[in-house]
Every structure is written in C-alpha cells, then in structure tokens.
Specification:
heterodimer; A: about 350 residues; MetI-like fold; 2 domains; about 70% helix; B: about 350 residues; alpha+beta; OB fold (Dihydrolipoamide Acetyltransferase, E2P); 6-stranded mixed beta sheet; 20 strands; about 25% helix
Chain lengths: ~350, ~350
Amino acid sequence: MTDFHVPVWGYWMMGLGFAAFVALLISYIHKNRGFRRPIFASPYVLWIIVFTVIPCLLVAYFSFTDPQGNFTFDNFKNFWDSNFNARKAMDPELIRQYEDMGLTLNDLGLSRDSINIDTLVFSLWMAFLCTVICLLLGYPAAHIMADREFKLGPTLVILFIVPMWMNFLLRTIAMMSLLEDNGLINSVLEMIGVGRQKLLNNLAAVQLGMVYNFLPFMVFPIYNVLNKMDYKLSEAAMDLGCDKWQTFYKVTLPLSVPGVVSGITMVFMPAVTTFYISRLLGGGKVQLFGDLIEAKFLSTSLNEWNVGSALSLIMMILILASLGLLRKVDPEGEGGGIV
Amino acid sequence: MEEQRLITLENIHKEYDGVTVLDNINLYIRKKEFVTLLGPSGCGKTTTLRIIGGFENADSGRVIFDGHDISGIPPYKRRVNTVFQKYALFPHLNVKDNIAFGLKLKKIPKDEIARRVDYMLDLVNLKGFGKRSVDSLSGGQQQRIAIARALVNEPEVLLLDEPLGALDLKLRKGMQLELKSMQQRLGITFLYVTHDQEEALTMSDTIVVMNGGKILQIGTPKSIYDEPNNAFVANFIGESNIFPGIMVHDELAHFCGGDFPCVDSGFGEDQPVDVVIRPEDVLLVGEDVGQVTGVIKSVLFKGVHYEMMIDAGHSTWKVHSTTMQPEGSRVGLAVVPFNIHIMHPMENAQPREEEAQ
C-alpha cells in the first residue's frame, strides 16, 4: 500500500475518459450507419472542456491578475525583468534602507535581470539545434526507409516505432545510466583505452537526450510523404535527363517539403518546451524555459503562479504561431500523423 | 534493311523472384516505325518497355541501340523518352516548367526553351495553358502535356506505356488518331504498349503480340488479324471461332462434321489442327446449300450487326451478320476457302517454338 490513492473523482474522470474513447471508436466504426456522431462526441467534448479549455482559460486568467485577483500586466513585465513582482511586493522604503546599508539589489536577490527572456532565447537555440540535427539525421533515415529497392525499410520503420512505446521518462533515465561516469559507454571507452569521459550533466547530454526523444517526430512525417510519393515521378525525372542527385533535389526534395515542415514543427514545439530531459541529463546545470515555468508553479510563494502563467501564455502563443505556419504550408496535413 | 534497325533486343530474359516475366525476347524496331507491344496484363510488355527505357535491367541478353549495346546505361543517358501510364507529371511545377524540365537540364538557352515549349503546346493543342498548374487539367489534357514533355526533348524513340488507358472511349479514339498523325509528322519511332487490340490495329505499323513473357507473333495489323499464328493470337485480336479439326490433305480441312476447302497446305495428311474462322466470315445460306447446317440458338443486336450463336456439327459458331434469322430456325453455313485459317494446335505449337530457338 502506498500513501497515494486515486481520489473518488479520479475514478469518475477515468471512467469519463474511457467512455469518451469508446464513444470515439463506436462513432468511427458506425460512421455511416445511422449513429449520430454528435451524441457520441459529447463525452469527448466535455473532456476537452474540462481538461483543455478551462485550464487554458485559467492560465490566461492567472497571467492577467495579481494574487489578489486584480487585473494587471505586471506578470508579463517579469518576462524581461525577472524580479519585478518580488521587488514590487517589498516595501520600497525597506529597499531604500537596505541600499543605504550598502546592499545592492543583487545582494537582496531582486536584481533587474533578464533571466526569463535569456532562458527562452537559450531554449529556442537548443530547440533550433535539436531540430537541425533531427532534420540532418531524420531525412536520410526517412529516405532510406521509403526506398522501394531497400528491402529492410519496413523493419527499420518498426525499429523506429518500438522505442516510442516506452515512456519518454524511462528512455531518458536509461540514457542517463548509459552516460554515467560508471555507465556502459564509459566502461567501453576505458576498455578501448580512451579513458573515462565526463559525458553527463552538460549541454551535449541534454541535446543528445532531446534529439533521441524527438527524432521519430521528424522521421515519420517525412517518411509518410516520401512513401506516398509516386515513384514514377523519379523515373520520369531520370527519363528526362536527371541523374540520381538531380532527381533528388529537383523532384523528391521539393515534393517532400510538407513532410519536412511538419517534421520541423513536430520536433521544434516539444523541444522548445522541454523541461524534464534537461534536468535529468543536465544535472540541474542546464535550465530551459520549461524548467523555469515548472519552477514557478512549484514555487512556494503564491504570486509565482501568476508569473508562471504569463510565461506559459507567451510559450503558447509561440506554439500557436508555428502551428498556423504549418497549416499554411501543409493544409491537408499530409505530413502529419505518426505512422 | 539492317541499317534501319534502331533498337534490337537480343535474347532478353528477365525474372522477378524466380518467376520468368520475359523469356528469350528477340525483336527489332526500325527507324520511324510505330511498333505496338500488345498482350494481356502480365504478359511482359511493360517490362520490355522499361528495359528499353533503362528502368529495369535484363537478367541476360542485350539491348542494342543504334549499333551500341546500351544494357546497364542509366535512363538519363539514353536517347529515348517515356510517356508514363498515369502521366507522372510533376505536381510542383506548372505546365510550362513540366515541359521545359528536360531542356533546362541540358542547359539550353532560355529563349530557345521558351520557343520549343510554345511549339509543343501548339502541337498538342494546349496553347495558352503554360501557366496552369497540372492538377487543374483534365485527364486528356494531362495526357497531352505528358506527350509534349517527352517529345520536346526530340528523342529518337518515344516509349508509351498504355498512355490512353485512363481516358474515356471517345477521347481515346481521338487521341489515337492524333498520336498517329503526330508520329508521322515528326518522324519519330514510337514504341507503344497496350492491351487494347483495337488501339493496336488502328495505330501500328507493326504489332508484337505477347503472352506469358513470350512473343507469339510479329506482323502488320492486317497480317496479324488475317493470319493469326495460333489460337491465342486469333482470340486476342478480335473475335474468333476456333474448332479442332483434321487436315485431310493440302487445301482440304474437316471439322464440325463437314469438309471445307481451304488455301493452307503443308500440314501433312490426316493431321490434327486448329481451325480459326472470324465471326464476320461465316456466311448464312439456305439449309440445302450450306457446307454444314445448324440451328440458331440466340440472336443479339449489336448495332452494326446481329450476333448469332449457331449450333452446328457439335460446336457453337459465333456469327456476325447484318441480316437476322429468327431463333430456332435452321440455316446453312458456308465459309469461303480464303477465310479459313489453319493452325497447329496450341499444345503442339509451344514445344516446336522452343526447338526452333
């Protein structure tokens, strides 16, 4: 027995979720057999309202209010001045007294720094790197998997899918134990005479973890597009005088753009909001925007919720903007859908 | 004649996963000839075309193009262009860029590309369609663009893989005539693949009938229709009555309980043969003057003619006639000697063919 129990309402929620799932299945199966889909969709709609729409509205509410519930823009000021709320909460007279004693704002932990915006920029940079690496690794992989001549293609697809059945946290912890000072990789390195290296708790480890976790999201949209592409188009290009390389960049590449755009979005979005991978593989030394938001919500001082909400909202707007961009390039969602 | 041979296939053999799809194909194609590979699906005609186009390699045998062995040379180095079955137009390029695709690769000056593309658009009757996206075109228009895209490169041979298969009947007939006249005007060799015998008869200078990976007969449309080599060709090209019979002696065949004078000879005496008679070659005459007599079992109106099934001499005859006889009536059947085609029976024909090779 553990100290944690599923609360009564938890069972209701799970039941509701299961009902929504079953309703979805039934309505799908009986699409055209007289069942009225809106009825079956209602649990799902309720689910979305309770767990997506209301939380989103709450985030918006918190980000525009202070702990007392008064409307304010102050939370957003914390975005570029991370201690704005903390300073405001303190009596200005008290601050002046401390300053007279020779203490700086920095000493008081109230400095005018831009940690939040810096972290966001750094997260964007890490996500950008992750996306570029995933694209450079993922496109060739997808291309090989979709090659009609390559008989092992379907096997490779399975090999890419199977790890995704495992929880990403487990995968990351496994990665951690691989990279440890006494981990498998270091043992091998020592055995071949290279010597033990510091592999964990640095930027490279975090980046490796991100690429490892998000690579399938790049590979499959591209694979889908390439796999569906009519091979006669490549043959036509060769017939008209293209060698293999020209066929690729004049026909295959331009036609796979929807998959590439979809892959970039699907990697970049989770990468920019990454928060747990950085903690496990970065050893607390690498802080991403996701970690920052998490810290705000786990913080003991109440008004941090409001700041966290504001930061989340900024993040959400970024994601919505990139989604909108995706819609523009790939309106039919051709590249979307994992497998 | 030898120097006119543009493409020669020598002993081409091809297998997929142990299944033979091309079995010792020997064929030559002359310059400016319209050659059609005709056969049911799976007969190897498309594979033959793909081997000439360079998309497949034969397991053994040689492809000679203009005196050089081109086996193993990639498609982009061959002086042939292909019109694909479903056109394979590039969806990311507009009509003009589709047609200009091959020319741009050859680094031809821009103004010349524009001139030649315009000429092609004119040739396929799609002037002013240059800026359109290929998805906005109808099947017939896409077809023309596919032809223009191939022809603009001035290939020595144009390979066409069932290019009219996706079009409706009326459009198909129109395009058949257009293709034929285009071929004659431009003086390009066409190698055409189809399973439609009527299409083959309409357009071709030479028809190559294939089945089961083998060439069964090569000849002009007329010779293939009038003098089929065996029952398969007879059946595939138009409709036929095929009866088992006995060659009594030269120029006399016995089948369906009657003796029929014919023009064939050299089969020996009292040898089993297959007799082929086209439905339109059977004459309905008076009961007393026919070579055999029969009873009309069914009558179907087919537009130009009536199709009658007639029981005569323990066989059923399919007869096309413009005059109708009522069902159940007795008639005499006659065939002029010239219209009776005698062939070696199918099962005997096969081993003989292999011996010859």
